[in-house]
Amino acid sequence: MTFTVTELAKALGHSGGAVGNACETLVTRGEAEQIGASPRRYRATPTTAQAAQHTPAPPSPGTSAPPPARTAPPAAQGGRPDPVIRPNGMAYHPRALAELPDVEALRKLRKAGVPVLLYGPPGTGKTSLIEAAFPDLVTVAGDGDTTVGDLVGEYTQDPGGGYTFVYGPLITAMQEGRALLLDDATLISPKVLAALYPAMDGRCQIRVKAHKGEAIMAAEGFYVIAGHNPGVHGAVLTEALSSRFSVQIQVGSDYDLAAALKIQPKAVRIARRLATAQEAGEVGWAPQLRELIAFQKISDVLGMDAAFANLVGVAPLEDRDTVADLVSKITGRPVVALALGRQL
Fold first, then answer.
1. Is the CB of residue 290 less than 8 Å from the CB of residue 123?
2. Helices (H), the chain
3. How far is 237 from 206, CA to CA, in rounded Å?
4. In terms of pTM, does the model score above 0.90?
5. I need a surface site. Which of 7, 135, 217, 304 has the fewest CB within 10 A?
């Protein structure tokens, strides 16, 4: 027999996200098999029963249950939370949010069913935070060309020449009780986003008109979180979208983290100065953590002079002279945008 994550979650009484993660772990160990992908179905292997024997037995009546697994990153010496490893293997360093580590705060909001919108310039770590908080994440990379089919699914030609409806990320997240990230949500057409809203309100379901009007109910654990880059051309936070996200969190670059990562101090100082000028409306651009990490990599490969020149070059044209003046002042020598020189 084969089972979907939703069927297993209902039978076991656990969230779809937790069951989905457990199934993937079993498949990785060879203790279960995945059959199909839309939706994912699983079946037992000869080693599944042996794996089940190592599962802790439930507490006997009248005894206390074991403490729940920690949902927050453990605190390191000095009270700082340890880094959280993202799916790509990179470490995320938690930041403070409402007197909690941000990862823990987002997990609490998910448990309470409160959707979150993170907003701020590109490169400030919005996606990194969300990936660290939700290992079961399903992501939609939004842009102006995103269609309803990209969200809910569409018919795809199969090897036999026929057509099969393949569920999209929204339905996958709903059926499996997973977190759904709308990355750059405000670049997606409001008409497309409207297909999502019934899943976020009290109905917790959508109807897939393209697939015989099929009704899809959201499994326990389904959660929507979004990212918004206010300064990006075409990004519009409509009232309809904003009203769906009860918590909206501004995300800026953590320049203290940049210093802790041993990025060149002068580069961090330049970024701080430009960020202050940006807040005062004196300049439109400031390097974010992403640019500072790139700066250090370029410096390690091509040298510091080239890294500073590239920092000037990646600034928008309207801010480039201001950035060049500041870089030159702090480094103590003239700096212009990185460019090819004479023929060697």
1. yes
2. 5-12, 16-29, 48-53, 102-111, 126-133, 148-152, 169-176, 190-193, 197-200, 239-242, 255-260, 265-279, 289-302, 304-313, 320-331
3. 23
4. no
5. 217
